[in-house]
Amino acid sequence: MASASVPLSVLDLAPIGAGSTAADALRGSVRLAREAEQLGYDRYWFAEHHDVASVASCSPSVLVAAVAAVTERIRVGSGGVMLPNHQPLVVAEQFGTLEALHPQRIDLGVGRAPAADQAVAAALRCTDAAEFPGQLGELVRFFGAPQQNQGAGTPVSAIPAVGHRPELWLLGVGPRSAQLAGMLGLSFAYAHHIAPENVGSTLAAYRSAFRPSGLSSVPHTMIAVGAVCAESDAQAQRLAAPAALLYVRLRTGDRHRPLPSISEAAEYSYTDQERALVAKQTAGRFVGTPEAVRAGIDRVVAESGADEVMVTTQVAGFEDRRRSYALLAEAYALDRAAVAV
Predict the structure, then answer these.
(1) What is the fold of 8-331?
(2) What is the rounded CA–CA span in Å between residue 247 and residue 274?
(3) 8 A C-beta contact, residue 89 and residue 159
């Protein structure tokens, strides 16, 4: 069996399935992170979403703390913290604390994605997206020596962050974020599962803009892809169907229902417009046998030149989700601890 061509990691949204609760999803995520470490995955990141009934990953820093406490090797982080929702000082204090407690194991991925709607934005006290570059620069400075902020008009120190800087990443789906990451010398993660069509040009823009910094001396990229693995293509398609229906509901403004069950998704009758939405959603996702999924991922890696791959698997049932990650780990011959597939 071929060995892994790039490091593989996990992006988790703590999906809440029909008939389950947020508590079930969160406990499942902690359990899955321990499994991912044993399977040989490199990183385990949590996304930030608010007021979406199918997603329990509202507080990445809390989940990072929970997972880092029960694992030993795997890097744990955010994919990402949406900086307009937070004050840079607080983010620096949180992730500086995490890095101090778990040295060289914490990642801080940040993004600029807006809140789901104006009501959520108001509840979060979101700042304007135009302020994002300044917020990002402020966040980076908080992880430096105190005098860096003294001279930058911010005479405040994020005490736990000083000397405890996590690995910093900027997330994005277009050239604006890519160029900003490059100019600041940050690593860059591209959400291929959201916008597969722009991956090559966006990573090229990042590399072109990259300037070495104290954060990274060379450009470093990751792509996040959607994937569902099963023993057969038919079973994989069956497991992936609820995420497709969820996507349609989210795109039409219905975010207050959990991830549908497999039977509900199988029985749903799509309109032509909804089928078009599903086709768009599945373009950034690989569904099938482990061999087929690996072939799809390898193709995108070859085309984009990405250094790492992060996989998100939107399947509600814990065992089906664990099995999907285990099969993919086997397809890539990851360096696994003794774990039964």
Answers:
(1) TIM Barrel (3.20.20)
(2) 10
(3) no
Quote the Cα angle for 183-188-192, to 5°: 135
What does the CA dihedral 199, 39, 234, 317 come to, rounded to 10 degrees?
-100
Q: Which one, of 79, 184, 99, 182, lies nearest residue 136 by Cα?
A: 184
Structure tokens that stand for 53 in this block: 């009934």
CA distance 274 to 251: 9
Averaged pLDDT, groups of 10, the chain, 341 residues long: 74 96 97 98 97 95 98 97 96 98 98 86 89 95 70 76 96 95 97 93 97 95 98 97 93 90 95 90 90 97 96 94 98 69 34
CA dihedral for 7, 198, 185, 219, sign (positive or negative): positive
CA 259, 264, 266, 268 dihedral sign is negative
Distances (CA, A) of 203 to 139, 199, 276: 23, 6, 27
